[in-house]
Design brief:
Blueprint: H1 2-19, E1 23-27, E2 33-36, H2 38-44, H3 48-51, H4 56-59, H5 63-75, E3 79-88, E4 92-103, E5 111-118, H6 120-166, H7 170-194, E6 203-205, H8 207-221, E7 225-231, E8 239-241, H9 243-261, E9 264-279, E10 282-294, H10 322-331, E11 336-342, E12 345-353
Length: about 350
């Protein structure tokens, strides 16, 4: 009877582990995998049969984490690490919370339990919410700043016009014209900083037709050594959006990419459908993802977190408004632009809800 209860307990433990959504891995004294549950197989994208016997350094390619795991096996002290980055198979990048528990009293000798919880999605949602909040705060600040700037600008321009009428010397009027033109320039700059103030005129559009239009425009402007490749998903349905505004957003990003490349480089337009995707606080059944990828030098690290802020630019001749305007245009459609960058690969991802039926 006692043996039956023990066997029943073992079977229950296995059922619990098999049905967990958290990845659970067990390593033997040599830190080679001896158990993985189905969630672990999904996370590592391999079957248990191929994973058994593989060393921890190969399964969890993060030198600092592997050193900590070896230390935990030696000392018997458990630990937890948050937001550990794993580069699986050299291509898949995962962010996980890791809990390591040594099991020195195991019947099979010292073993070590590793629990992995993927947090990429939670981090992305949190980052997107922060980005949306920052953009909203920036817009409110700019609206207030615009009011404070436009009033004295209008008075300055009016005074220059009155002064011009009183001047008899035509040469002096050149100076009043400078004042008027500079006031107009500042007024236009403030308006551009505020971004679009028109409601999107929505209609069904094909994003691939739109991308081909942008491609032809940028290739006509760019150096001959710049090429734009296509990697389209033909299954993406038409989306409801303002065609001109989406063209402007894609054009701003692609022009930036072409300018970053200089005389030679590659840009790729990549489209995919993402299912059950969250943008801000809203979960969408289908989202169209338009990626603009370039192999340029990347965005300087000191401005990567601020690239969508007005007047932030990595180029001396840049205005720093193109990306801010693009983000504002996409947000008007319930979407968002995300960016990742490293030398040799910069990706701007435009995320647009497919089922957006707001007219």
């Amino acid at each position: 009877m006692e043996l039956a209860r023990i066997e029943s307990g073992v079977a229950l433990d296995e059922r619990i582990l098999d049905n967990l959504t958290t990845a659970v891995l067990m390593f033997d004294a040599g830190l080679r995998l001896c158990f993985v549950n189905p969630a672990g197989e999904m996370l590592l994208a391999a079957s248990a049969r191929h994973l058994f016997g593989v060393g921890v350094a190969e399964l969890l390619p993060n030198a600092a984490l592997v050193n900590d795991i070896r230390s935990a096996m030696d000392t018997g002290h458990p630990f937890t690490e948050r937001e550990v980055v794993l580069q699986l198979n050299g291509t898949r990048r995962l962010t996980v919370d890791v809990t390591v528990m040594p099991l020195p009293e195991s019947t099979h000798g010292p073993e070590l339990l590793v629990e992995l919880v993927q947090v990429d999605r939670q981090l992305r949602i949190s980052r997107d919410e922060t980005l949306l909040a920052q953009q909203q705060t920036t817009r409110e600040l700019l609206r207030g700043l615009s009011h404070e700037i436009k009033n004295p600008l209008g008075g300055l321009r009016g005074a220059a016009q009155l002064l011009e009428r009183e001047l008899g010397d035509e040469r002096l009027k050149e100076y009043t014209q400078v004042i008027i033109s500079e006031a107009d320039r500042l007024q236009a700059l403030v308006d551009r900083m505020l971004g679009p103030n028109t409601v999107p005129r929505r209609a069904k559009i094909n994003i691939h037709e739109l991308l081909e239009h942008v491609r032809s425009l940028v290739l006509a402007e760019a150096e001959h050594g710049v090429s734009i490749h296509r990697d389209y998903d033909p299954s993406i349905p038409d989306i409801t959006a303002d065609r001109d505004q989406i063209v402007q957003a894609v054009l701003n990003i692609t022009r930036n990419a072409a300018q970053a490349l200089g005389e030679r480089g590659n840009i790729t337009f990549r489209t995919r459908v993402i299912r059950q995707f969250t943008i801000g606080h809203t979960r969408h059944r289908l989202v169209a993802c338009i990626e603009i990828i370039d192999n340029g030098p990347g965005i300087p690290p000191d401005i990567r977190e601020r690239v969508f802020y007005p007047l932030v630019t990595g180029r001396a001749e840049g205005t720093g408004l193109g990306l801010a305007i693009a983000q504002s245009l996409i947000q008007q459609h319930g979407g968002l632009i995300e960016c990742t960058s490293r030398p040799g690969r910069t990706v701007f991802s435009i995320l647009l809800p497919v089922e957006n039926d707001v007219a």
